[in-house]
From TrEMBL:
Organism for this UniProt entry: Arenimonas soli
Signal sequence range: 1-27
Domain (D-isomer specific 2-hydroxyacid dehydrogenase NAD-binding): residue spans on this chain: 161-338
Pfam families referenced in this protein's UniProt entry, alphabetically: 2-Hacid_dh_C
Protein's recorded name: 2-hydroxyacid dehydrogenase
Highest taxon listed in the record's lineage: Bacteria
SUPFAM superfamilies according to UniProt: Formate/glycerate dehydrogenase catalytic domain-like (SSF52283), NAD(P)-binding Rossmann-fold domains (SSF51735)
UniProt keyword list: NAD, Oxidoreductase, Signal
InterPro entries recorded: D-isomer_DH_NAD-bd, NAD(P)-bd_dom_sf
């Protein structure tokens, strides 16, 4: 039987067919709420589309940690040509899953990266990714890393402000009196007003900006540090560089640590820093415990130079039983829960879903981490 098409025609059709196979899948439409989320939190998009990354390909196997059946169903809709599966609770089975995965959505751990040699994109389910970027040779593997930066900023910022207000109003003291069934009007002394006082945000990123916004709403003067320069929103009166930290601390009645954990911020808050703060100032840590020299913090509190501390993070976690911070009357400790809220889960999965949609379509991802910088 004669051929239906000439050899040149067959070559053209073969080329077109190959292009269709190699092209990214037809992009599904983004959730209408995503645009609002991007605008509200100022989420940053990568400079280049995913398809231009040398190791990009439409995902084939996606392993997901901490997802229920509804989340998995949505991810499968977004990546219909990939096998999307929940990470197994069995360690051996999970290693087999990761060995074949080119996309992983989960918590940062060296083990996950070691078990996933074919990995191309890793969506971390946390803001801090120090456990990811510390993996030896990760940058050389060409893995794209994205995180949850800014999605938990609203509740963390509210937590920081709540701690500052509680310290200023003496709520820990009155709380203990309540538990003892005692009406002690003079137990705390004079409460302090935060309006008109100065709050220093160390690390004016997503979380730091939300802290600054709320402090400004209380009538505070807000100053800050950031690595990238001196520009900041209108509600921040002054933005300094990291080498100006001590000078800025001298102006601050309240200091909030919102900086990512990097070699430069490890042990950043030491005796020199606390001595530079105003007498009676409050120190709030909603970032990472390892940024603080904890013995120096205890000494500054015991001496009375610091008026109080609010700690959502400590080093180590959990804080050991009998540690002096537990018993200090001017210290509030919460167990690394500042990011918890009734809305945080929705924001997180909106970002995860949108990034998977973008990756499948070869579009630019949100919240891409600079592995060399660590955030």
């Amino acid at each position: 039987m004669p051929a239906l098409f000439s050899r040149p025609c067959r070559a053209v059709f073969a080329g077109i067919f190959a292009l269709v196979l190699l092209a990214p899948a037809q992009a599904s439409q983004p959730d209408p709420r995503v645009r609002e989320l991007i605008a509200q939190l100022d989420l940053r998009q990568a400079d280049t589309p995913s398809r231009e990354h040398p190791r990009w390909q439409s995902p084939r196997r996606v392993v997901v940690f901490f997802a229920d059946s509804a989340h998995l169903a949505r991810l499968r809709e977004l990546a219909p040509d990939a096998r999307v599966e929940a990470a197994s609770d069995d360690a051996a089975q999970r290693r087999r899953q990761l060995a074949r995965a080119d996309v992983v959505i989960g918590g940062c751990s060296a083990a996950n990266f070691a078990d996933a040699p074919a990995l191309r994109w890793y969506q971390a389910m946390s803001v801090g990714v120090e456990n990811c970027v510390a993996v030896p040779g990760l940058a050389g593997r060409g893995v794209v890393l994205t995180n949850m930066q800014r999605t938990s900023a609203p509740p963390i910022a509210e937590h920081a402000i709540a701690m500052a207000l509680a310290l200023a109003r003496g709520l820990p003291t009155y709380g203990r009196a309540q538990q003892a069934g005692e009406w002690q009007r003079g137990a705390f002394g004079h409460a302090r007003e935060l309006g008109g006082r100065t709050l220093l945000v160390v690390g004016l990123g997503g979380i730091g900006t939300e802290v600054a916004r709320r402090a400004d709403g209380l009538g505070m003067r807000v100053i800050a540090t950031r690595n990238s320069g001196r520009l900041g929103p209108d509600f921040v009166a002054k933005v300094g560089l990291p080498d100006e930290l001590l000078a800025l601390a001298a102006e601050a009645d309240v200091v909030v640590n919102a900086a990512p954990l990097t070699p430069a911020t490890t042990d950043l808050f030491d005796a020199e820093f606390f001595n530079a703060m105003k007498p009676g100032g409050y120190f709030i840590n909603i970032a990472r415990g390892r940024s603080v020299v904890q013995d120096d913090l205890v000494a500054a509190l015991r001496s009375g130079h610091l008026g109080g501390a609010g700690l959502d993070v400590t080093d180590p976690e959990p804080l050991p039983a009998g540690h002096p911070l537990w018993a200090m009357p001017n210290v509030i400790i919460t167990p690394h829960v500042a990011g918890n809220s009734d809305r945080d889960d929705e924001r997180s999965w909106l970002l995860i879903n949108e990034n998977l949609r973008r990756y499948v379509a070869g579009e630019a991802l949100l919240n891409v981490v600079d592995i060399e910088r660590g955030y």
